[in-house]
Amino acid sequence: MNDVVVVGGGVAGLNAALVLARARRRVVVVDGGTPRHAPAAHTHGFLTRDGMSPAALAEAGRAEVARYGVPLIDGRVDHVQADREGAAGFLVRPAGGPVLKARRVLVATGLRDDLPEIPGVRERWGRDLLHCPYCHGYEVRDEPIGVLGTGPGSVHQALLLRQWSDDVVFLPHTSDLADGDRERLTARGIPILDGRVRWLVVDGDRLRGVELAEGRVVPRRAVFVFPRMVPHDALLTGLGCERSADGWVVTDASGRTGVPGVWAAGNVRDPRAQAVTAAGQGAAAAFAINHDLVDEEAERAVEDYRATGTAPHAPHHLPAALR
């Protein structure tokens, strides 16, 4: 019987497993091997890990967790269900593997970025077609930057990027700009280039610009896009976890969902979580899960004590008066 099965081996899941293992809990991590930030060359804003590649960060995290004896299973989890017949709280079913029994489940399966269907976007994603100014803005500081309009968040993204470069242009593409947004962009010195975007111009494996439908090429060193973020939350909703009005599973600050025994951490519950934030959420969830298990164990001990009138023997090394 496992105390906790962690589904998802990114920084949120691995950090949770690390904390739980150090609390001497029996933990298993199951990871599908498709991290959101895999296309990026580096991870930034993570103290002591700034500039490390996502692959190296994952490798270091897995090695740390493995030192505590935590099994790491490679594979997707097809299904999680409450164990209504056995002693386990949950049955976790990895694809092609044995069923794992767990008292608690932590889901850290992340999200996917739904990108606009523009030629070149998927190929350049995480390289010079970017999303997070805090993750990548410094690397393209003072360079010509384009912001592709995909929704209301894109305007704020353009305004934010003016901190990193004086040469930022906004490309509405097919989105409609409100008059107030046009005024704000203009007031900040961000030109608005109306017209549909045809494709990203790439030469020598580097982004060179953005071509509009009219044939005009706007030279750019990097383009930012605010994608639609879709959480990988099927395991959570399948267990009965509720979504809020904005489409994300409802949790408290520790990641506890409305289903007893189920937690969530990282991008599956928080689209804004960077790597360092996700790691912190994994730790917070681990603390909460461990406290929940401690409370359960204390309640069972009290029930047993009341039923039998006996308690576990004190360690033999204690003086007799203390036993």
TrEMBL record:
<keyword id="KW-0285">Flavoprotein</keyword>
<dbReference type="InterPro" id="IPR050097">
    <property type="entry name" value="Ferredoxin-NADP_redctase_2"/>
</dbReference>
<dbReference type="GO" id="GO:0004791">
    <property type="term" value="F:thioredoxin-disulfide reductase (NADPH) activity"/>
</dbReference>
<keyword id="KW-0560">Oxidoreductase</keyword>
<protein>
    <submittedName>
        <fullName>NAD(P)/FAD-dependent oxidoreductase</fullName>
    </submittedName>
</protein>
<feature type="domain" description="FAD/NAD(P)-binding">
    <location>
        <begin position="3"/>
        <end position="282"/>
    </location>
</feature>
<dbReference type="InterPro" id="IPR036188">
    <property type="entry name" value="FAD/NAD-bd_sf"/>
</dbReference>
<dbReference type="Pfam" id="PF07992">
    <property type="entry name" value="Pyr_redox_2"/>
</dbReference>
<dbReference type="InterPro" id="IPR023753">
    <property type="entry name" value="FAD/NAD-binding_dom"/>
</dbReference>
